[in-house]
Amino acid sequence: MKTAFSRIRIIMFRIICAVSLFFSLTAGIGINAGEPVSNNTLTIYCPTGLDQLVDLWAKEYSSHNPGFRYSISVGDMGRPAGSGSLGFYPEKTAEMDPAGEGFRMVVGQSAVIAVFNAANPSADAIMQKGIPAEKIAGLFSGSHRWSDIIKGGHNAEVKLFITDNAESAGSLGSICRKNISERQGIESLEAAAVIRAVENNRDAIGFCQLNDVIAAGVSGTNGNIRFMPVDKNSNGRIDGFEDIYANTEELARGIWIGKYPKALCSNICAVAAEKTPGETIIAFLSWIMNDGGRYLAAFGFSELPGFGKESNMAILAGTGQTASVAAKHSGSGLWILLLSLVALSGVFLIMVFGARRRTRILIPSGATVSDRPFTDTAVNVLKGIYYDRSHTWSFMEKDGSVRIGIDDFLQHVTGDLTKVRLREHGEHVRRGEKIFSLVRNGKQIDIHSPVSGIIKEKNISLGEDSSSINRSPYGDGWVYLIEPVNWEKEIRYMFMAEKYREWIRDEISRLKDFLAASFVQHKLAYAHAVLQDGGELTDNVLAELEPEIWEDFQRNFLDKTA
Fold first, then answer.
1. Percentage helix, strand, coil for the chain under 3-state DSSP, each rounded to 5
2. Which domains, ranges and CATH numbers included, belong to the chain?
3. Are 101 and 275 in contact (CB under 8 A)?
4. How far apart are CA 179 and CA 474, in angstroms?
5. Residue 170, phi then psi, degrees to nearest 5
6. Rounded distance, CA 281 to CA 107, Å?
7. d(CA 127, CA 26)
8. Which of 156, 218, 522, 549 could make an SS bond with 213 (beta carbons 3.0 to 4.6 A apart)?
9. Alpha-carbon dihedral sign for residues 288, 289, 290, 291
10. pLDDT, tens digit, 9 for 90 and up, residues 50-91
11. Beta bridge pairs of residue 419
């Protein structure tokens, strides 16, 4: 009975999210109908440099909504405070920190992209290994050869070209921590000329804006131009989660979800002082997502990728305000249709109550889905050891030292690990302190210590074979041997086997709820994940998910229980 209710709750939650997103999209359509949204004056703040874009947005939106009143304050004249004000700022500026928690949303993006000639003799090594951010900085500190920046690269001097705009120079200057104009031998050209120069020089690297490569029709796969991969984690190779350079669509998506170095990005953000902005602001931002993006290119920025726009619309819908805006512009027929769909969905769920149905949850497109269900019965539970809410276990040896490791639940969630980061022998640790990190292909979660004490020994075999933590989490995959200092008190907060089994059932339910909420936030970056028959999770559910989901899991799942 409980499982059936859980399945119905998940399905209803998804229906509500879909209806909310539909409302947000229809709100954006309704905004262009020429009806006024509000008679209140919206004060818009922006710095010099964005004022022409913001003024164009406001004028165009006002032309479709005669009731929209606005004033624009340019420079350091203030920033949003209260429901009647909105700001547009570069992402890295101090104005991005409104009073209180506030509201933030990326509405336009830009990034400095490195391109190189496909005929470069080191092309294969470049695509496999990439170039670390620090090597990019080094390019502007003196002359370099390809063998200096790529292991195994050919012995020819690197020729540099950059676009002659302030955005490129500023971003490259921030990563180099110097004025790049001081570097001799760099040619600064118009964007189209940079791309032509790279096409005609096999040893060249060109730096230009994302918008420039899109406008020039550079695909990354056809022609003589390739995108230069950036080794973000500086491990000497392009890991799977870093591989965003196949084409412009994947590159734009990677920039949007944070896979590209922040120092090379210069996004525009909308900022409001209130966490839930008023309906005038929601309507204006919805219009920018639907229609206003086409004005970005003229000012050196790119529109968000399609899933980025839709994700923002879902966020706007989540404020609870967009639905009311949509109601003003949609007409009673739309409401009747939507309410009918919700009602029919409810009837359908009642009809299938208790039946074993296949329901959907989201995982990345193209990922391999495990055939094994992940249920509480799949979690191996040993008697005679203590379990902690940090998803670790503890066992006191005969000499009084305590051996610790991760529980079987956690390795079912992460999938096979590629690295375990450990602290050193002799270090003092406290219960609840982050004590080691689990890594899968560059994605990482930090684990909290179940006990306080001094590290006597670490399992050095994990450095050679981290997969043992998956194969034998209670045996060969142990992590530390600790000399405890508060053992008798701290075990009061732990579980023995039977209580732990009950807790794991709740953790499985909490994991489903976490995934549902996280997918609503990030859902447009994923597609086609499936729950097993009966509504059970697939095994290794986080394994192929993107880094931001792992970060959510750390923040909203692990850290909340530790």
1. 45, 20, 35
2. 2-109+267-332 (3.40.190.10), 112-264 (3.40.190.10), 375-500 (2.40.50.100)
3. yes
4. 54
5. -65, -45
6. 13
7. 42
8. 218
9. positive
10. 899 999 999 999 999 988 999 999 886 567 877 788 999 987
11. 439
Taking CA 375 as the corner, what is the angle to CA 373 and CA 380, rounded to the nearest 5 degrees? 110
Dihedral in degrees, nearest 10, Cα atoms 504, 508, 510, 515: 150
Which of 4-8, 42-46, 105-109, 251-255 has the lowest average pLDDT? 4-8
- Report the b/e string of 32-69 with b at 16+ CB within 10 A: eeeeebbeeebbbbbbeebbebbeebbebbeebbeebb
Q: How far apart are CA 547 and CA 543, in angstroms?
A: 10
Pairwise CA distance, residues 431 & 87, whole Å: 43
Q: Among all chains, which residue has been given the structure tokens 């509000």? A: 38
Kindly state the greatest CA–CA separation across the chain: 80
Cβ(484)–Cβ(402) below 8 Å:
yes
* Most confident range, picked from 326-330, 485-489, 521-525: 485-489
Residue 431, amino acid = R
Q: Which residues, other chains included, contact 276 with Cβ-Cβ below 8 Å and sequence gap of 6+? A: 103, 319, 320, 321
In contact, 361 and 532? CB cutoff 8 Å: no
| Residue predicted with more confidence, 150 or 421 | 421
User: How is residue 466 written in tokens?
Assistant: 């981290």
Q: Which residue type occupies 550?
A: W
Residue keyed to tokens 């003589």 = 224
| Nearest residue to 387 via CA among 454, 474, 506 | 474
Give, in order, the Cα–Cα distances in Å from 216 to each of 163, 165, 212, 219: 13, 16, 6, 9
CB 242 within 8 A of CB 442: yes
Q: How far apart are CA 414 and CA 432, in angstroms?
A: 21
Give whole-number Cα distances, 225 to 125, 201, 213, 245, 386, in Å: 16, 11, 10, 12, 58
Tell me the CA end-to-end span of the chain in Å, nearest whole number: 30
205 burial class (0-12, 13-18, 19+ CB within 10 angstroms)? buried
The DSSP symbol for 532 reads: B
Mean pLDDT of the chain: 77
Q: What are phi and psi for residue 274, nearest 5 degrees?
A: -95, 140
Residues linked to residue 482 through DSSP beta bridges, in sequence order: 402, 455
Tokens 């990354």 correspond to 220
Per-residue pLDDT at 284 = 94
For the chain, the residue count is 562
pLDDT in tens, 430-480: 999 999 999 998 899 999 999 999 999 999 999 888 989 999 999 999 999
- Token reading at 108: 């336009």
